[in-house]
């Protein structure tokens, strides 16, 4: 099939590469000439594991342009993946999306061929059948359903594993204006996916709701696990891992995202949860569940900062390992490690921060408030307390470094990454209960600052 991918960013570039590697003729378009040049020359415009290799496989069938007429000239379908930034109040702006759809419509004006516009950007429910359809029909002079299809088809990917998630998704969510349009997009996925995922087809508004509802459910689960961690920490002998592992065995619940650890972050979870709250306000229903999820999430970094400060000897330094919102990505949006670093620095604590991929982005946010280490060894060299803020497998090298370094630091192992390893340090896992008197006695500087 001839496919146009509109927006060659963190999601669009991998999608264009995957579609072409799987045999489709793909042309990408972006308003950013640098992204277009990168794709044209087979280079990755964004950092994503596996993308450079996928671009090499895609090369004979993948090109890019900034010319809308050229991009749409032969396309049977366009996948639109431009930003839909959050607005005050939690909804998403369709401004860039409507701009792109307007260009697509104008390029399709007068074309006799059937074409499906497939919106992949995250949108508020009601967008596709409302302003998006209106913009497309106005610009193209054609009617959706009459030689022109419109679908809503978000990707459920996580940065750092975008390619794998595209090839092996749990399901394909597909909102369609009619069956003909849905058939075209389903046919594309049948050629791309490697695990024959179920395709959930429905109308446009239900798919839009399902996308943000799914992420809001996962965030609720994460905050629930963190509430259990808070309870367990206050119970002598409490252990959130024991409690949550048992819960995860129940088939109604399942084990994923059920760990008392730091909160969620990144470009999707926080804003999709806020979008549910915004939607309820618009509809006159209640936002309380989404707000509670957010409230629990927002206190996690601060809660940990208090505990870290409490275990710090006077003048002692803290090392924070993990500044991206998750491993294998440079993205620091709503990152818990970053929030922890900022909180501790604001308390006057000397912080050294390290991340394998996100140092430059972290520096842009934290500035000179913390020190940055170029490697793990340098990060922990003089730290009295070490916090493992993301479950990056690279941090499993910590015990060997501490062996060489000597001393006996405290390690907050937020993700229990070091479980089972001999570590020359005192390990504190989150969600582990300790009577207050013992924690106080262990603390070199008494009550929390
Ligand atoms: N990144 C994620 O983890 C993720 C996951 C699920 C959904 N999404 C959604 O996908 C959408 C895109 O996200 P992203 O992370 O890929 O964004 P991004 O900022 O990384 O990339 C977007 C690209 O679109 C281009 N662009 C902007 N306006 C344009 C226009 N009018 N016409 C053509 N190109 C234009 C930009 O130059 C950029 O290259 C958003 O709605 C986001 O919510 C993202």
Q: What are the salient characteristics of this protein?
A:
single chain, 449 residues, alpha/beta, eight-stranded mixed sheet, six-stranded parallel sheet, 17 helices, binds nicotinamide-adenine-dinucleotide
Describe this structure in words.
- With 449 residues, the chain is of the alpha/beta class.
- It is built from 17 helices and 14 strands.
- Helix 1 packs across helix 3.
- The radius of gyration is 24 Å and the shape is globular.
- The C terminus is likely disordered.
- Bound molecules: nicotinamide-adenine-dinucleotide.
- Nicotinamide-adenine-dinucleotide binds next to helix 5.
Outline the fold blueprint.
Layout: E1 2-6, H1 12-21, E2 25-29, H2 33-40, H3 51-58, E3 62-65, H4 68-72, E4 77-80, H5 95-108, E5 115-119, H6 128-140, E6 148-152, H7 162-167, E7 172-176, H8 179-192, E8 199-202, H9 204-234, H10 240-249, H11 269-283, H12 288-310, E9 317-321, H13 336-346, E10 350-354, H14 359-366, E11 371-372, H15 376-380, E12 383-388, H16 398-405, E13 410-413, E14 426-429, H17 436-442
This protein binds nicotinamide-adenine-dinucleotide.
Residues 6-12, 29-32, 35, 81-84, 96, 99-100, 121-122, 154-155, 157, 159, 267-268 line the site of nicotinamide-adenine-dinucleotide (NAD).
């Amino acid at each position: 099939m001839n496919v146009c991918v509109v927006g060659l960013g963190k999601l669009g570039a991998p999608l264009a590469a995957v579609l072409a590697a799987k045999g489709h003729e793909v042309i990408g378009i972006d308003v950013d000439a640098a992204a277009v040049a990168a794709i044209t020359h087979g280079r990755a415009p964004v950092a994503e594991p596996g993308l450079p290799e996928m671009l090499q496989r895609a090369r004979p069938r993948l090109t890019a342009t900034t010319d809308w007429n050229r991009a749409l000239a032969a396309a049977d379908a366009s996948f639109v993946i431009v930003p839909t930034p959050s607005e005050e109040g939690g909804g998403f702006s369709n401004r860039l999306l409507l701009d792109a759809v307007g260009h697509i419509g104008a390029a399709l004006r007068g074309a006799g061929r059937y074409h499906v516009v497939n919106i992949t950007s995250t949108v508020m429910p009601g967008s596709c059948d409302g302003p998006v359809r209106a913009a497309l029909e106005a610009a193209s002079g054609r009617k959706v359903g009459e030689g022109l299809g419109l679908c809503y088809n978000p990707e459920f990917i996580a940065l750092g594993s975008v390619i794998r998630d595209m090839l092996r998704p749990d399901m394909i969510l597909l909102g369609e204006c009619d069956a003909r349009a849905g058939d075209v997009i389903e046919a594309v996925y049948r050629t791309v996916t490697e695990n024959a995922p179920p395709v959930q087809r429905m109308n446009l508004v239900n798919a839009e709701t399902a996308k943000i509802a799914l992420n809001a459910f996962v965030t609720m689960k994460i905050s629930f696990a963190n509430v259990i961690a808070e309870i367990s920490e206050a119970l002598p002998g409490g252990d959130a891992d024991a409690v949550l592992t048992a819960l995860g065995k129940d088939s109604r619940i399942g084990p994923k995202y059920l760990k008392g650890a730091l909160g969620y972050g990144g470009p999707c979870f926080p804003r999709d949860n806020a979008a549910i709250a915004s939607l309820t306000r618009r509809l006159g229903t209640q936002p309380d569940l989404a707000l509670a999820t957010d409230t629990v999430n927002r206190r996690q970094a601060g809660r940990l900062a208090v505990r870290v400060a409490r275990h710090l000897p006077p003048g002692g330094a803290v090392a924070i390992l993990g500044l991206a919102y998750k491993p294998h990505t440079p993205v620091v949006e709503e990152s818990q490690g970053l929030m922890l670093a900022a909180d501790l620095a604001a308390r006057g604590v000397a912080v050294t921060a390290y991340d394998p991929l996100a140092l430059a982005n972290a520096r842009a946010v934290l500035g000179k408030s913390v020190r940055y280490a170029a490697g793990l060894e340098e990060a922990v060299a003089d730290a009295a307390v070490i916090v493992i803020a993301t479950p990056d497998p690279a941090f499993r090298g910590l015990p060997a470094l501490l062996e060489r370094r000597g001393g006996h630091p405290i390690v907050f192992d937020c993700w229990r990454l070091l479980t089972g390893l001999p570590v020359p340090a005192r390990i504190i896992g989150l969600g582990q209960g300790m009577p207050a008197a013992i924690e106080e006695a262990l603390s070199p500087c008494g009550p929390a600052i």
